[in-house]
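Design a sequence for this backbone.
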């Protein structure tokens, strides 16, 4: 198992080194995000309950984030196409840091609602940015490999992260608010370092910005144009939605 992991990581690293700097920045961000998210992912619910949330309130935190992520999906994509990727990518990282800070300073579970909203927005911004950066930075024949290489590196880091978290929680005092709280401060520092790296090394992708319709609801008009004369796109979205439906039921 370890041999397989080392071989896969070696091949992924070799592929990554041959790519453009923007792609490498995207991989670093994805891997760092997996590490930072993994520090607290298993303890977020315990933390919320310790701050006073019951089972219904705990479920509401997840529901609020999921609903908002769905609502802003199209506007975010439209904005990225017209305003550029870099600023929204950096904004997503900054919001991730702010979210972690809210968790760190929270004295009651109500503040976690705001953190859940920031998580949804940040995840949508950085997820869209990563997709565009990857598509722009690699050649067409390498795009599937690029996505898998990025995913492989993130997965390796994600396997290590819970072990680090468990060690730190034990050192900080165990499975309670004060034992978990320092992990969120670590996430704030981590996102701050990632922000500085991305701000320094990421260049605006060469994907041309689109001239969209004017007005606050211009994205609605552009969304209609997107589907005009593209039956293949409509079928792909319909199939993707049907594939996601079973997972949404659980």
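Sequence:
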């Amino acid at each position: 198992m370890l041999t397989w992991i080392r071989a896969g990581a070696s091949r992924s690293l070799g592929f990554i080194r041959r790519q453009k700097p923007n792609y490498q920045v995207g991989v670093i961000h994805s891997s760092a995000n997996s590490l930072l998210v993994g520090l607290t992912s298993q303890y977020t619910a315990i933390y919320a309950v310790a701050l006073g949330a019951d089972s219904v309130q705990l479920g509401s935190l997840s529901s609020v984030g999921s609903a908002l992520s769905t609502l802003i999906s199209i506007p975010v994509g439209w904005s990225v196409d017209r305003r550029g990727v870099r600023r929204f990518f950096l904004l997503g990282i900054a919001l991730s840091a702010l979210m972690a800070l809210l968790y760190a300073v929270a004295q009651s579970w109500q503040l976690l609602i705001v953190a859940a909203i920031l998580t949804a927005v940040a995840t949508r911004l950085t997820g869209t940015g990563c997709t565009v950066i990857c598509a722009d930075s690699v050649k067409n024949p390498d795009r599937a490999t690029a996505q898998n290489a990025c995913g492989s590196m993130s997965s390796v880091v994600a396997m290590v992260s819970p072990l680090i978290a468990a060690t730190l929680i034990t050192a900080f005092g165990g499975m309670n608010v004060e034992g978990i709280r320092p992990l969120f401060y670590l996430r704030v520092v981590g996102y701050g370092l990632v922000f500085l790296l991305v701000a320094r090394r990421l260049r605006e992708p060469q994907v041309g910005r689109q001239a969209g319709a004017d007005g606050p609801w211009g994205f609605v008009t552009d969304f209609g144009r997107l589907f005009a004369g593209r039956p293949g796109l409509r079928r792909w979205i319909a199939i993707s939605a049907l594939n996601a439906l079973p997972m949404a039921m659980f």
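Residues 143-172 form the longest helix (30 residues).
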